[in-house]
């Protein structure tokens, strides 16, 4: 239906593909979890940070909507209507009234159910890829609106960088700081943790006591980011979900301990876990901390990463 667009039209051009989009994982430098709202979401006050652990989605023109994949989770992750990539493509098609036809292929590196928002990252990639393939020409803000209906982290993964997230995480404000590269070690666990289960555990641990002591805003974290000193940043990293993740997976305490023993500036559970992330002073130090964690044998694999990274982008 959009094939009739000519070169003189103002309409965005349809792309015949392939369109390749790279999207980062996220960690939360600060994750303040507030009360459970009537709509079933917890109020969040979080600082998102995109790191150099990437999934890649390729979109080609097709007669139906199909998804194939390789890498992390292949053979485990459902590729049907439940996959966030298919849901994102369909939501974009519905919003823009085009047929949801594409052949999509995912190369996955971000571990499943790891607290790194891999599913949301893939949905963000699908929105960018299909928007270009179909020539629907939505702005990043419009794509974020479509994404927010599917997952709270999707607007951030379209945006990338380091940003404050409020509401249930979907309302994004960029954090303006002088460009600084932070060095991380990502300790990937065997197996995942279900995000809803971690939130349920947190509610149970809080046991109706309100307000919880741990709830804080992100002001300290944001001022630490501006100081560009890993020791200063390390001192204020925090995650209200960490006690719940540790209660469900006590062995994560061994990972945090091993990271500290390997010399990390600081360590914390990433989002809902079970991935743990550690701050290092520079790339060489990050390599040493990763080697220490790998030698301790407390996680599936420890890898180095940098941040902040841009959000989902065509490559
Ligand atoms: P979050 O912290 O955003 O809750 P997470 O990193 O803990 O996410 P994800 O890997 O994003 O976990 O996915 C959680 C669940 O979402 C998976 O177990 C899977 O059932 C479902 N899912 C749907 N589509 C995808 C996808 N493309 N990639 C990963 N998971 C997906």
Summarize this structure as a short list of keywords or feature phrases.
single chain; about 325 residues; alpha+beta; Ribosomal Protein S5, domain 2; Alpha-Beta Plaits; 10 helices; 12 strands; binds adenosine-5'-triphosphate
Condensed summary:
With 315 residues, the chain is α+β, with helices and mostly antiparallel strands.
**Looking at the structure, what is the overall shape?**
globular
- How far apart the termini lie comes to 27 Å
Structural class: alpha+beta
For the record, the CATH architecture of the largest domain stands as 2-Layer Sandwich
Radius of gyration: 20 Å
Could you tell me the mean pLDDT? 92
Q: Number of helical segments?
A: 10
Order of helices and strands: EEEHEHHHEEEHHHEHHEEHEE
* Biggest sheet layout: 8 strands, mixed
Enter the CATH topology name of the largest domain: Ribosomal Protein S5, domain 2
Strand content: 25-35%
- The CATH class designation of the largest domain is Alpha Beta
| Uncertain spans | 1-10
Helicity range: 25-40%
Which ligands accompany this protein?
Answer: adenosine-5'-triphosphate
Number of spatially distinct domains: 2
Number of strands: 12
């Amino acid at each position: 239906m959009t094939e009739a667009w000519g070169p003189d039209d103002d309409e965005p051009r349809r792309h015949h593909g392939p369109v390749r989009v790279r999207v980062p994982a996220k960690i939360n430098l600060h994750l303040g979890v507030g009360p459970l709202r009537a709509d079933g979401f917890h109020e969040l006050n979080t600082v998102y940070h995109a790191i150099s652990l990437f999934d890649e989605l390729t979109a080609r023109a097709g007669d139906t909507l199909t998804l194939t994949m390789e890498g992390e989770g292949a053979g485990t992750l459902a590729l049907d209507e439940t996959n966030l990539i298919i849901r994102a493509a369909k939501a974009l098609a519905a919003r823009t009234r085009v047929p949801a036809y594409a052949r999509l292929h995912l190369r996955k590196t971000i571990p499943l159910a790891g607290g790194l928002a891999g599913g949301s990252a893939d949905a963000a990639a699908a929105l960018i890829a299909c928007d270009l393939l179909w020539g629907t020409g939505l702005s990043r803000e419009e794509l974020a609106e479509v994404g927010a209906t599917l997952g709270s982290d999707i607007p951030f993964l379209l945006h990338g960088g380091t940003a404050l997230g409020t509401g249930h995480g979907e309302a994004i404000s960029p954090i303006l700081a002088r460009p600084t590269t932070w060095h991380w070690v990502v300790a990937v666990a065997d197996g995942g943790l279900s995000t809803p289960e971690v939130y349920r555990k947190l509610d149970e641990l809080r046991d109706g006591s309100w307000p919880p002591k741990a709830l804080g805003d992100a002001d300290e974290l944001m001022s630490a980011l501006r100081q560009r000193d890993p020791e200063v940043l390390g001192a204020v990293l925090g995650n209200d979900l960490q006690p719940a993740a540790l209660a469900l997976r006590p062995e994560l305490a061994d990972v945090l301990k091993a990271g500290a023993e390997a010399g990390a500036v600081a360590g914390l559970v990433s989002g809902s876990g079970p991935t743990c992330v550690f701050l290092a002073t520079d790339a060489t130090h990050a390599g040493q901390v990763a080697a220490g964690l790998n030698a301790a044998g407390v996680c599936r694999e420890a890898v180095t990463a940098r941040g902040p990274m841009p959000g989902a982008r065509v490559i």
